[in-house]
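Hi there,

I know you've been waiting on this one. I reran it after we fixed the sequence typo, so this is the corrected version. Both the input and the resulting structure follow.
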Amino acid sequence: MKIARLASVAACLAVLGACSDVQVVPETTEASETTVEPAPDAQPEDEAETGTTAVAPTTVPPTTVAPTTTTTVPPTTTTTVPPTTTTVLDTLCIKTTACQYANLVGIDFSRLKLDFIDFSVARLAGASFVGANLTNSVFIRADLSAVNFAGATLKNVDFTAATLTAASLKGANLEGAVLCDVDLAGVLDLTKEQLEKVKKFRTKGKVYCP
């Protein structure tokens, strides 16, 4: 019996000795030994996460603008020539009541008191005597073309040889006025009643021409 036990003990020791020489090697997985390399076409992680696509820059050809030609026009200088006065109006003669040969063309004498003034041979074309008082004034050989005597007082006015072409005598008072050697054909607005008051003759049919 003792021999059998000793034999079993020796067998166990032998087994244990054999087990002491065995080394345990940890198992290695193929996954741990293999290195994963990124595919050549794979995008970087930053671009993959943002989802942006890199766009190649486009080159825009430069635009050539044709140069504009500016034409310089020299400034024109305008010389203002002052109007030349060829005639001087003699309006101051009214104060002296002596306007013989005076130049009074186109003057407005409307509603003025101009009695006893001598306008002999004066130039009065286009003047206005509307409503003026010309009692006893003298217009011998005066140019009264287109003069407006409308409503004027012409009592005892001497128009001997005066030019009255296109002159207006509308409503004028011609009492005692002298119209010797005057062409009345061109006078405007002259009525029969006005002519009846005109002093045409000196005595008994003789023409009054001083």
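Quick highlight: The domain at 89-202 is CATH 2.160.20.80 (Pectate Lyase C-like).

Best,
R. S.
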